[in-house]
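Amino Acid Chain and Its Fold in Token Form
===========================================
Structure side: the spatial fold of the chain, written down as a series of whole-number tokens.
Position: the record begins directly beneath this header, with no further notes in between.
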Amino acid sequence: MNADWTSEPLRDYLLRLGSAAPTPGGGSAAALAGALAAALGRMVVSVAQEKSPHPDHARLLAAFSSQRDGFLRLAADDERAFDAVMAALRLAKDDAARPAALEAALVGAADVPLRAAASCLSLLETLREAEPHASRAIVSDIGAAAHLALACLSSSLLNVRVNERSIKDGALQSRLASQSEKLRAAGEEAHRALTARVAERLAPRP
């Protein structure tokens, strides 16, 4: 059963996540963390807009809304990608179509979390832009969103790896590994810079 993010209550999703059902799993949960981070960033900008409107607010609100919805789509995409892998594995081992079907499904299952990780990098950039608009009272929420975004990125890359290792195409394996490492390094640096800024603003005043 794939998530219907337009109607499924969060509690029902969590019950499915904690069950023995094959989906949702770690990739979907990682994308949900990204959606939470985007929603939290949007909350910070919404509060700032109410207190002191700024020309950048509309753009930031739209960006966070788009990113939130994108992560929700990725959560559902991840479930569908895993279902495709399971369907390929259920094909008879002597079925001539099985190897190609499994390879294609694994490539799809690696692609979804790779896109999620790239989306996390974009989200961290939007959070960096939003940080100056956060008052000292709620700048901690920017930090919390940054931590959630990094959790999404790191967890997504684990899911890239678990699928990549079963792909037979060596060139594609190398490409996925290289892209993953670049995203990891860029994400960790963006997270480090943003959380350092938040910590600086939360430091005791002289």
